[in-house]
What we know:
This protein is mainly α. It has helices spanning about 15-40, 65-90, 95, 100-110, 115-145, 150-155, 160-195. The chain is about 75% helix and about 0% strand. Helix 5 packs across helix 7 (about 160-195).
Amino acid sequence: MNSPETPRKSPTQAIGAKIFHYCNFISLFIMITSGLQIYNANPVFGGRGGLYIFPLFTLGGWLAGGRHWHFAAMWLFSLNLFCYGIYIFITQRWKNRFVSEKDIKALQKSQNHQRLNYAWHRIIYTAIIPILLLAIFTGIGMYKPAQFYWIVDIFGSWQALRIVHFAAVPTVVIFVWLHWKLGQKVGGNPLTKSIFL
């Protein structure tokens, strides 16, 4: 006679992680859509006659409106990222969330698919941090180019700075997709839902 299977425990997330994900989701959505509104005022590629983003995917209605939304969301995003940094340091979550030497070794030697998924998840989770910081850094240079002229100088020109900042958009979108995809492989829908519910 087979013993009944023990029901699998639903994954749970710390309230701090949930708040971080909610704030990130909201702020990134606002920044991307308002950023596309800013982009339409002077496309990064092709000058005034360059690729135009359909208004349905933009926020703000005009250049100034897009800038207001973008900078408001930027403060939410930056403060959220800063608070999350303090949170993972105090709770020591960074030991389990970010890439370690064990993950690199697992990619080289492990045949366990679950272990490999965890390793890739931590690598991607770690790699996005410098990309987000770069987006903030270049955004500050674009926001106050006179005061932070040295940021513009680092990238060689205003146009190069804009290209790097704009490149952060597809990079972050790809990260979100990979983050979700690997989460699905590791814990399925219950894990994804546990972040927001």
